[in-house]
Amino acid sequence: MSHGDCQAKEGMDTTPPIIEHERQHLDAAAVAVRDSPDRRLEKIQAKNASLLARIEATKAKRVELIAQLQNKDAAAIRSRHIKLLHDYNDIKDVGMGLMGIIADNRGVRVSAVYADFGVAMKD
Fold it and tell me: Is the pTM of this model over 0.70?
């Protein structure tokens, strides 16, 4: 009894996985070839319609997101952020000045006052 006969009797598939994959690919290609030109055109048109619907949905989402923006003008947004940064820096300067005054009144270093208030020196 040959090796192939032994495998066949045991019911094992003797087709290597790579060859099986190629056969499946060829079977799928044969089905595509059997499709009539009209059927292929219908499939392409259906795919195009699907893609167009996705494009329209994406455009609608874009319009919705733009509408949600508070201020659509980039220059105005930039100006607002710069103003907020200036305000933050002014407040921070006042806070650091107050920490310095507290440190002088206590006769300690500013870092000790920062630690008392739970503020890191990097803040």
Answer: no
